[in-house]
Amino acid sequence: MKSAKVLVALFLYGCYMVRECLQHDNPEPVKTALLQTWAEKLYFELWNCGEYITNRKSLQSKYNKEAKLEGRNGHILVANISSVIKSMMDKKQQSLKRILESVEQVAVSAHNDAPPGDEYKVRNAKPNKATPHTNILLNDLKENSHFYHTPVNATYSSVHIPTYVYDRASDVIKALKWSENLDVAFRKNYEIDPRLSWQYFGSTTGFMRQFPAMEWPDKPDNTEDLYDCRMRPWYVEAAASPKDILILVDNSGSMMGQSKIIARHVINTLLDTLSVNDYVNVLVFSNVTNEVVPCFKNLLVQATLANIRELKLGVENIADPNNISDFSIALTMAFETLEMYRERNMGAMCNQAIMLVTDGVPENFYELFKSHNWKNGTMGMPVRVFTYLIGREVPEIRDMKWMACANHGYFVHLSTVEEVREQVVHYLPVMARPLVLHQSHHPVIWTPLYADVTDPKMTDYLWEKEECQQQYHDTISYKETKDQFFYPKNKAKRDRDRKKKELNQNLNVNRQKKHNLITSLAMPAFDKKTEMNITVRRLINDNYWVWETRETKVAHLLGVVGTDVPEADLREAMSPHILGVNNYAFIVTNNGFIVTHPDLRPVFGDILKPNYNSIDVTEVELVDSDNIARVFDRSILTLRDYIINQTTGDREITVKYHYDDMRRATTAERHYYYSIVEGTPFTVVVALQEKHFGYRVKIPDRFQNLNTTRSSLLDYFKDDEWRIHPDWLYCRYAYDDGDDTSFKTPEDELRHFLKRIAKTDNTWNKWPPPRFYSESYDCDKDLMLSLIYDANMTKGIFTEAKNDTEKKKKTEFEKRFGVTLAFVATHSGLTRWMDYEDKPKTPLNSDDHENQQPHFIDENVYSIEEVWYRRAVEYNMVNDESYVYSVPFENENIKSTLVTASQAVFVTSKENKKKGAAAVVGYQFRHSALQELFLNITKQCYSETGCTPAKDTCQSIERDCYILDNNGYIIASENVMDTGLFFGNVRGPIMKMMVKEKIYNNITIFDYQGVCFKRENEDDSNSSSFLYTPIHHLKQLIGWLIGRVLWLAAHSNFQWMMSQAQAIFEDVPDYQEDEESVYSADTLANFKIEGEKALKYVRINRTRPKSCDRVVNLYTLTSKIPEKVEHKSMCARPYELRKIMNTNLILLVVNGRCPETTKAENFDTEPKEVDYEEFNNSLNCHKAFYSLPRRRPKTACIRTHPDEHEIYDKMCGKGTITTVTPITLSIVFFLCLIL
């Protein structure tokens, strides 16, 4: 009996398995009629909700009633922008010349003045509290928006003195005294041009005088101030014509210990004095000579920040000193490399120099210099030689000094680390001698984009600090959770959070503006005194020395004068409101580098990227081609050639571009118009999508003169539920130096000017006025009139009277969808909204954002630049009735998730059917409401479709249902946790099938501005071993101590530690309970890791940021979904889909009975690093080998002067006696760590 029961059970089980197998082989097809019905019902609900909430039709009707269109002419636009920028730059240049004349005149008059006495005080921007008797306090500093909201005093200047410069030295204090007279020129310039930014004079003695006066910003974590104006781009470019530099560093056996440390600092400091128009390489030699970066072999590389960083890493990894140095081979190799670059017109094509760093030479190598550098006599030598003698106890300096003096160079003897930065920069005034001797020619230089006072060397330090904070957080977390710390769920969450943070940091998603990006123009200032008396010793009768005074030629560089042009001013000059949505302008330098561009992403989180200011135009304008990384299409290379050679013209290119934090991409045909900015190395480019965005809205005539609307202006802006674009110029006072001319918000400023406009007929003042006063102001008439017109059109748009039926319907949809907010944004930068919930939002005049959920308007004030605005306008080209829906990506707080829907409002011409974007309307509603709607509709069967609820609806285990957007992201799913995920991450095989069948198109995007991370224990591309200096051993010791402290902290049972941890983590959820419901006790036991082994897993991998290229595959829905392809079996295409009408969404149903649909497959949208195997995965090596052409600056190359040989040959260097300040000693260790 028992056996019979077993047999029956086995039989029944066998039948069940056969049935299951048959079902897998013959799954029921998805019923297309049912799918179509679901899609139609979803459309009906979404469409009606959008129409009732946004009142789109009413706004559309208003604009079409009287607004007109005007075409965008690219040639006119680019010409106007170039003209505006040229006018701006001419004013800056005129101001600069006034400062220059003042510097040279004041310096001449002060030649015979004695240095001031001990009673002399300076207005120090960073006064030393220990010596208040030497400084004057900066008083009456007022915050000024024109200077980045920095407190300033515009009646006098202040000075910045580097930490290692002794401010009471006679030459320094004398220059400080006479340069006070520059305040007259500074003030006059500011009166003539109130839009002038910082003005400054950088002295060769090291200080910088800056106007207006300000207190120097504090450094993070009280780190030492390393700023030295002589190492900033504006100074080094103006001080001398462009240069090719070859640095030779001795690595013989005697260069051990302190000598090696000093040598490294010399090299790093020399590298810091170079700019992008210079070329450089570093060779290390003993018995053989090699490049410190092997892939830079026989090259001079452009001195970009990325290449300088690569060279510094190479110097850091120089092998241990050994053998005897062969100077002849090293010098010969250097001369031959420089000669090759001269003959081939490569590199800087101007000055050339060899920098020799050693602890001694065996001879002066007279014959070698004669054959390589004096071929045309000593008058025409092409290469200068600068020598740096390292060490305290050196046997002989005569040969080293002769080598420098005989080759128009300079000799420096360095015996301590702290004197390096001050002494190394002496080579700049020497290279400037030909410029000084010409006297009449003061070339104007323009820098590339850079951050004003930020030292790029801080990148590694700040990243290390961030990793330390992460390490602290992980250690505390382990302390609290112990075993649960290693549970897979918790580890996965930490990994996911870090990936998300890295992505956000790479893209700078928070629009941070911590760094002030600028370009500067500068000019060298010369000492007008060309002769001076010197006292020298002369040998008489072979054994008797006498002192005598002789007159000699001199050529002294006083310093460099400069002023800044903020990148924000350049963007403002491009009139983005005229260019319109999805059109833009940008600026390119003679090197092909971007100065301003909407896709320029210079920061990683809060840290400047290693190559932030050398982004090439080909790296932001991506051609729509199938080329692999850095194989640039001929069309963009041709455009680049036209741009850098400063021609005027236009070209059309089909490009691809990304947006929405590099999660979406599309392609478009862009028309590029380019024009030179006369007198600068800059070219302006305007990029238009003329096919779709070639027209702009023109306001009706009745608004042109405000006669009929002047009295009602303020009525358009009565409430507080509106914002304007914070970066656009509507109206602004010339000076921001009083309570009546400064405002807390752009909205306050606009209200103020609306009141003025309402009271006076003379609204639009001529700009610039003949003379500026405190009440002088500038208004952009076109933008202001457009704003007033849009305010009139959108006033009360969400509360317009409707009949009772419509009001009832609106209320019904509002409640059913959980609508939280409706909004409208216009082409003039106006954004209005209306809240449907009492959700806390940041008040208009409040800076308190803490402990508040961000309100929509706190993060969406940029109108035409917002993603939802751009997407709505763009999708209008696909379907002009569509709403575009989106949800936050990978949002973990599902309960509070909101859906954003937006639709564009276009003005359509009756004559030619052309269209221009006027506004975008939209609303936000609860995702939970959409989720409920989706589930309710897709669980229904309808008799006419012939469906069976148990098999055909989305409640069935045989069907998996999704709503996807046009880029493949999940808007709704049966599993609510899928919301915001890329569909390929959830159902990779299905996504792959849809791409194969052209339902989604793949767009490959290369991110040439990426930052990746190299683990510190990974091998460098440089095969040489690490240089273990005492400092390095000290760093290792500190690292070991930190590790032990962390381990002790994690396992300590001290009562105070436990009590603090209890207070901090008393609300931490119980991880164990959650995990135990998933894993068995035996499995959980495997997660228990203790002691040193636990510390190993808690400790994060130390990394160093590096520039890298990244690639990401993004997807976009085909505008016309192809018809279903017939397949032999149902599982060959195990899904069906329908577009949800008038949306950017599709309804997708997957046949769950097809087993291959659940296979795991890597199909995501995460950026991945591009490997350049040919160059040992080094991006900088790849770029150096395949370098793009450039045009050298148009400024004259002045590298020689016939009178230079008359300068007394002993004035080419000396041994140094260092005066060390107490502060200098305190920063030596810090310098060793970061350089």
Automatic annotation (TrEMBL):
Membrane spanning residue stretches: none
Compartment(s) of residence: Membrane
One annotated GO molecular function: metal ion binding
Assigned keywords, A-Z: Calcium, Calcium channel, Calcium transport, Disulfide bond, Glycoprotein, Ion channel, Ion transport, Membrane, Metal-binding, Signal, Transmembrane, Transmembrane helix, Transport, Voltage-gated channel
GO cellular component, one term: voltage-gated calcium channel complex
Membrane association type: Single-pass type I membrane protein
Residues of the signal peptide: 1-23
Domain named VWFA: residues: 244-428
Predominant location category: membrane
Family annotation (Gene3D superfamilies): PAS domain, von Willebrand factor, type A domain
UniProt-listed PROSITE patterns: VWFA
Domain of life from the UniProt record: Eukaryota
Pfam families given in the database record: VGCC_alpha2, VWA_2, VWA_N
Protein's name in the database: VWFA domain-containing protein
Annotated source species: Acyrthosiphon pisum (Pea aphid)
